[in-house]
Model the fold of this input.
Amino acid sequence: MASNVEENRRLLSALELPECEGPKLKAFPYRNSPITWIEQISQPSDQSPSQAQGHVFKVEINSRIYALKVFKFFKPSTYRHTLGPIRQRDVPDLLLGFHTDPFYAECRAYAQIETQRKSQGLKRKDIADCYGFMALTRADEEVLEDYGIDLWWDIPPDDEYRKTAEGSPARALVKEYIEEDVEMDERTRKHMLTCVKWMNRNKILVNDIHVGNFKGGTRPVIGWEHC
Done:
């Protein structure tokens, strides 16, 4: 049986994720290209520990600027207690993780957004693009350490899952980088509400609805999951 480290490496080398029924996000086409780390542009310092899912950086890959969201590590069985006594026995950790891990939730959400855009023939893009997922190299993880970031911070060192999974590559989503902040006025609020309603109609649950998650043109950039 493969170790958790080997399994996590295998998953991040896949062509699309998550490996369960439903929408799937493709791997970033240039995921083996080196990353130039420019600056940290967002962090979960204003969130509660349970909401802090990752850190966002401005990076350069192949001479193009992106926003890179790096996710903290997640213990697949975290929400097993919510399944009830009967279903707990039937759902393996891996499948549970595909449906509860914030990284996989955003993979599903972005895949669903793209699917709905195409099926509805939408040309205008009111939601920031996501170009795929990628694994970080050890050199990239050292950059995160220099920023003082610990992606295991909420899982104790003596936790059994962490003991078997520590050494797994960090996960990230490569997103469109948008420089401009929004000017919060009545027009902006109405447009933000229109975006949120569109996602809800298309089975996307929007989390973290606040001005910091919207950029130029009131385009939401982070914080949602597929229902």
